[in-house]
Specification:
This protein is of the alpha/beta class. It has helices spanning about 30-40, 55-65, 85-95, 105-110, 120-130, 155-165, and strands at about 1-10, 10-20, 20-25, 45, 105, 140. Helix 4 packs across helix 5. It is globular.
Length: about 170
């Protein structure tokens, strides 16, 4: 497994990967050092961007473009799906169907998976463990009333709101 950090207009992001695909995507932490420690914990060599495989360099280019407002669909990026349960993967597939600028509720995803409203909490737990935020756009999942709730990536709800604003989503304020 290898990993790297890369700069964007949004801050320093990170990626880790193996032969199956991405094992982790990291949105900017409070400091670059914290990001480096977080990715270093996954193990493997830390590479410079020019040492990464071509598909990783292309993914980085697309992330930068997305965060600059040229919205991208990341559903074609290879992910190491062995890192998630079948339930989590089902939730992540539903999240990947949400187009930029749109959102769905936890209950919507629960319903799409045949769980009904009672499954919304389980959907939230699955999204909180998403190893690929942005790539699997868990930031597009909001409360039933459109409120910004729960986002486990660095920066929490502030980061979620920033990502949705970049994507042109209609944001509700109280």
């Amino acid at each position: 497994m290898a990993h790297l950090l890369f700069t964007t207009t949004f801050g320093t992001c990170g990626m880790a990967w193996n032969e199956k695909g991405l094992t982790r995507f990291l949105l900017p932490a409070e400091t670059e050092d914290r990001s480096a420690r977080s990715l270093g914990a996954v193990g493997g060599a830390r590479l410079d961007e020019d040492e990464a495989p071509e598909w990783v360099r292309m993914a980085i280019t697309r992330v930068r473009r997305h965060l600059d407002g040229d919205l991208q669909d990341f559903s074609d990026l290879p992910l190491d799906r062995s890192l998630a349960s079948e339930f989590q993967l089902g939730v992540y597939r539903e999240a990947q169907l949400i187009r930029p600028g749109s959102s769905k509720s936890y209950g919507d995803i629960s319903g799409a998976l045949g769980l009904g409203p009672a499954g919304a909490r389980a959907v939230g737990v699955a999204l909180a463990t998403n190893p690929w935020p942005l790539v699997v756009p868990c930031h597009r999942v909001v409360s039933a009333k459109g409120k910004m709730t729960g986002f486990s990536a660095p920066g929490g709800i502030r980061t979620k709101t920033r990502l949705l604003a970049i994507e042109g989503a209609e944001l509700l304020s109280e």
